[in-house]
Every structure is written in structure tokens, then in C-alpha cells.
Amino acid sequence: MVGRKPPSRKGSMADVPKDLVDQINRLEELFTVPAEKLNQITDHFVNELAKGLSKEGGTIPMNATWCMGFPDGNETGTFLALDMGGTNLRVCEITLTEEKGEFDIIQSKYRMPEELKTGTAEELWSYIADCLQQFIEYHHEDEELDQLPLGFTFSYPATQNYIDHGILQRWTKGFDIDGVEGRDVVPDFEAALAERGVPIKLTALINDTTGTMIASAYTDPEMKIGCIFGTGCNAAYMENCGSIPKLAHMNLDPDLPMAINCEYGAFDSEHVVLPRTPYDIIIDKESPRPNQQAFEKMIAGLYLGEIFRLVLLDLHQNPDCKIFEGQDVGKLQKAYSLDAGFLSAIEEDPFENLSETHDLFQNKLSIVCTKPELELIRRLAELIGTRAARLSSCGVAAICKKKGWKTCHVGADGSVFNKYPHFKIRGAQALKEILDWPANKGKGRGDPVEILPAEDGSGVGAALIAALTLKRVQQGQNAGIRDPDALLKACKAFDLKKPT
Ligand code: BGC
């Protein structure tokens, strides 16, 4: 697939009536982001990244994570990792083995009940602690355990004064649990564990992007950025402390590395540069957190199906065009009833007559589409998917431009990156347009800046960051560590090689 343009239905509109062609043209205008606009967005993005690192701060949080270095492949020991994702909760036990860069993993997934996302803080922490307890009881039955070090992947914006601490700035990705924003999540989490007597020591609270960067760097030294293109979107990269003015008061060695969790889903929440459509504006207004995460709401998996649904509903209600005439659109009226997987399936329909799309609409929405309607639907999915991929590249390009990196590898994970058709090639094409590569470059594989599938960030990455943190404590490098003594105690219980 890489190296050639993704297929497009643009040319197959011969039998589409004029009112629908007019609408398709209007949608193309609305959703197409030309190279010039990508460049304008990226330039603004570079400034906003810098602002986020400044003392005054900016819209993009640019959170210091206190993950202060890459692994060298010699990390060893056994660690727990907990990933609080949007759909699942995953618990892993990871053993970093003596063989350089290798590991063993056992893991269990638990469903994250939908009600939890809008429930109470107590319900959330109790559920998570119960899952951890179950995991430990199952895998360590009848063992006398001291404390197990845990890397907790908590993928929401958090202010971290220490690596084993994190004040939730705001919920994203549709979460809306009272009493957590503005609080350090660690004590409540630890209290729920203590109540159940679960022998775990939270060693590092991490973001999925930081985990992705570190896990990918474990096996590829050219990795400089970790990205998630999934339910939400974000990236992390390694900064040097001397380039973080908001940490200047701490007098850290300016050459020390510091992973920055950009939280760039918040980019342009003041609406200066992103080409928002009326549909993006509705999504924002009706979300639990309006005026936040502007960039994310245009590109992340949680929103792609909803953008698509809003457009179709608008067209159905538009007297100038006739779609789904005489059909019951009751199911289409339900907010968030279509996910990014629905759009993927439309883009993947291999048949010229779009029969799979026809069946999807009939089965999922009880709508029987005409052929011209199917053409419009397919083109709309392409437009939304292409816009997401192209805009996504602006964030990556902005980090490269800010750091002056002409070449690097970017580790990427998330459902949209892994599963959405043509996302990778569309993104690579946009990067080429922004970073202005010579004509023979920009074909995906082998590009100067290459976005590659990442290693498991919230599992292996979390374990590695926990290992790196303990190594730092053992070496007496306690910057950004709240409770070094407790961590040292946790190390002792652990098969952790003394630093050489
Ligand atoms: C969160 C980030 C996270 C991203 C990808 C965003 O909504 O704020 O912390 O990295 O989603 O999961």
C-alpha cells in the first residue's frame, strides 16, 4: 500500500444526481486541508509547543513527566503495568530479561464498564483495585509477596511534580467523573489498593505516549517521538531540561533529558488556525468539555464516526438535497452511535457497487441506501479519514521542526493508526508536504521522518519507565521522585539488578 496513492471514489460520480454532486463538492471544500493550510497549522503548532514550555504556559500543556532518559536495553526485573484505557483495563506482568531488549509478558484484560466513565471517583478506583487484586490472586496464588512496583498508564492530562504523582488537569475522551479533576489521582488509587491489602507500590504514573516512545526506543535507537492516534490523540518526545523554561527554578542540569507529554489534543482550543466545520463545532458544544481538545475532536477515533453521523443527518434535513428520503432515520439520530470502525468498514468496502456499505447501513441503521447515496457516503468517509490523517501529521511535524530533527523514527499506536485504512499513507503524504522532502522521498517506508508501529507502550513502556525510575533511585538521582525511600523498599523486594 505504501508508496502509492490510496484509492478514491472521486471519479465514480457519473450517475450521481446534481443535488448530491453539489453536496459532495461542498463537503470536499469543507474537509480538504491543502498543503498550504497544513503548513500554516504546523507553524502555529511550533509556537504553541514553545508556549506550553514557557513559564507563562499556553494552551498545549507540555507536561514534564519525570521520565528522564531512554532505556539502554539492559534493564531487568519484573514489573506490573496497568493501562486504564477507554474500552478496556489491562493488567500486565512484565519481566525484562537478561537478554538485551527482551521481555516476557502475561496479561489480563477487564472490560471497562461504560457507566464507570460517568460514575463516581470511588467506583472508578474500587473497580481498578478489584481488577489488580484479581490479577495478583490469580497469578501469585499462595505466594508471600512484598510489594510489586507498578507503572500505571493513566492517559489523561496530568500535572506531575513527581513521577509517582499526577494531578488530573481535565478528563478527555468522553470521561466525566466528578471529584477527580484538580486532584492527585495517586493517593485515591493507593487508598483503594490498601483497603484491599493489594501489595503494589505505584512507581511511575505515565502517559500512553511516553510509554510508547520508551517502549519503541527499547528496540530502535532512532525513536524520538511516541504518538497515539486512537480514541484520543497525543504525542511525547524527549526534551532537554535547559529548554523547559517553566522548570528553570528547579536548577536541573540543562543537558538532562526530560520526556514531555505534549497533550497536544488541546492544540488550538482558542480556534485560531484549525479549519473547523459546522459539524466540529457541534461536536465540541455537545461534548462534556466544550472549548477543550479542539485538535483531538477533529482527528481522534472517538469523534470520526460522530462527525460522519452529523453530516449525514444534516444532509437528510437539508431541503436542497435528497438523501434517505422516506426512510426512518431514528437510529442515525442517536449521538455517538457510529464509531471509527464503521467508517473504516465503509472505506474498506472492496466492491464497485458498494454492496458492503449498503448492508452496513441496512443492518446497523435500518436505512436502505440508493447507489448515489452510497457514493456520497463513501466519499464522505474518505474525506473525514483523510482530514484526520493529514491534520495528525501537523503535530508530529511541529515537534520535528521545533527540535530541528530532519530525520527520526516516530513510534505510533492506537486503533486509528493500526486499523483505519490508508491512515498511514495519508499521514506520510502530509508529512512530505509539510517537511518538504526531495521528490524521491515521501513514499512512506524510508522517509526521513517515518511513523512506525510502536511497541506496547502501556505494557512494556510502563514497565521500562518503572525500571528506569527505580534505577534512578538506586543511583540517588531523586529529582521528580516523591517517595524515594518507599520506592527503594519496593526495589528490594524485587529482582532488580544493582546499577553497574
Ligand atoms: C489524552 C492523552 C492521551 C491521548 C491518547 C488524550 O485524550 O488527553 O493523555 O495520550 O488521549 O490516548
UniProtKB/TrEMBL annotation:
Keywords: ATP-binding, Glycolysis, Kinase, Nucleotide-binding, Transferase. It catalyses: a D-hexose + ATP = a D-hexose 6-phosphate + ADP + H(+); D-fructose + ATP = D-fructose 6-phosphate + ADP + H(+). Its EC number is 2.7.1.-. GO terms for cellular component: cytosol; mitochondrion. Residues 224-468 form the Hexokinase C-terminal domain. GO terms for molecular function: ATP binding; D-glucose binding; fructokinase activity; glucokinase activity; mannokinase activity. GO terms for biological process: glucose metabolic process; glycolytic process; intracellular glucose homeostasis; mannose metabolic process. The keyword Kinase applies. It comes from the Eukaryota. Residues 24-218 form the Hexokinase N-terminal domain. Pathway: Carbohydrate metabolism; hexose metabolism; Carbohydrate degradation; glycolysis; D-glyceraldehyde 3-phosphate and glycerone phosphate from D-glucose: step 1/4. CDD domains: ASKHA_NBD_HK1-2_fungi. Belongs to the hexokinase family. PANTHER family: HEXOKINASE (PTHR19443), HEXOKINASE TYPE 1-RELATED (PTHR19443:SF16). This is Phosphotransferase. It comes from Lophiostoma macrostomum CBS 122681.
